[in-house]
Amino acid sequence: MTSVYVKEQGAMVRKRGERLVVSKQGETIEEFPMNQVSQVVLMGNVQITTQTMVALVQRQVDVAFLSSYGKFRLRLEADTSGHVDLRQQQLRQKDTGAIALPVARSIVDAKINNQRVVLQRQARRLAEGGRSGGAVFPRDQGLFDRSLQGMLQMQRQAQQADSLDSLRGYEGKAAAFYFEAIRSLLDRAWGFAKRDYYPAPDPFNALLSFVYSLLLKDVRAAVQLVGLDVYIGFFHVPDPGRPSLALDLMEEWRPLVADALCLELINRGSLLPDRFVQTNNPRRPVELGEEGVSRVLEAYGSRLGSRIYHALAGPGGETTLQQAIVLQARLMARVVKGQAPTYEGIRAK
Q1: Beta bridge partners of residue 62, listed in sequence order
Q2: Sheet of 27-33, strand order
Q3: Which residue in 115, 128, 23, 66 sits closest to 297, CA to CA?
Q4: Of 2, 62, 124, 320, which is most buried with the most CB atoms under 10 A?
Q5: What is the domain extent for residue 211?
Q6: Are 219 and 296 in a shared domain?
Q7: Do both 148 and 296 map to the same domain?
Q8: pTM for the predicted model, two decimal places
């Protein structure tokens, strides 16, 4: 199955027979068999015909609209009235608070575990690759080791957290340690000092924000696919317009999908900081540029198609990473309905 990203500004997407056709000024750019399309993502100034939207929704193909720089705008969704009972139970669980803390603890525990695994993997790969341009990474081994130890301490405290507020505090401290360690894995040319995203001030922050937007789009689609309300979460504080449950479920995937992908693209030399676009726009001072977007989208699609083990995947337990995201959303739905005793986050080894 194929995820179709349409980023050519001024393009038109339409259905022609049993094929999805992307054209511009009457000339065909790309076309795909409809029965092989699992997702269509329209970025920026891209048009789509009403007939095509209806056909895609009827086939349960995810259709999402993003800005040209990756910010989520909207997603087409079929009628979800068949999930009324599940959403009522989700509201009741939110009101009673019975499952919120155990679910949130599991999510944070998995996230910090996965962050530590990503750091250790990346440091090992850099060490095996030897010197890079005369530099050795981590640039500060002492800082890197202290960050890993600090994260482990925060993980242990998060496992014992007795309130959501304290849990959020441990998660935030672990994140600060994590990005300190990431800084020591990057060349200074990336200008990365800390995680900062409103707006992203440097190329690495801009890259992270773009990939996080892609990931949120897919986690959000998984949540809606299983019938849960994307706005009713258990860890993230509710706020108008905030897809709290999608953000909850996204946490454990951030390191494994987004962070690891960004670091690998950098370590392979696929992305260079001087190729990013300095816009002079205070709202978005740094952007990937057309070439960077293309490379990230290709790598992101490959990552989602990679195979991993998941206990709910059936015989053999192997599935794609994209389907594993859906399976985690299904597990959350089972917990909400009382069909599973607890939520277990994805934990890399």
Answers
A1: 39
A2: 27-33, 19-24, 12-16, 47-48
A3: 66
A4: 62
A5: 83-336
A6: yes
A7: yes
A8: 0.92
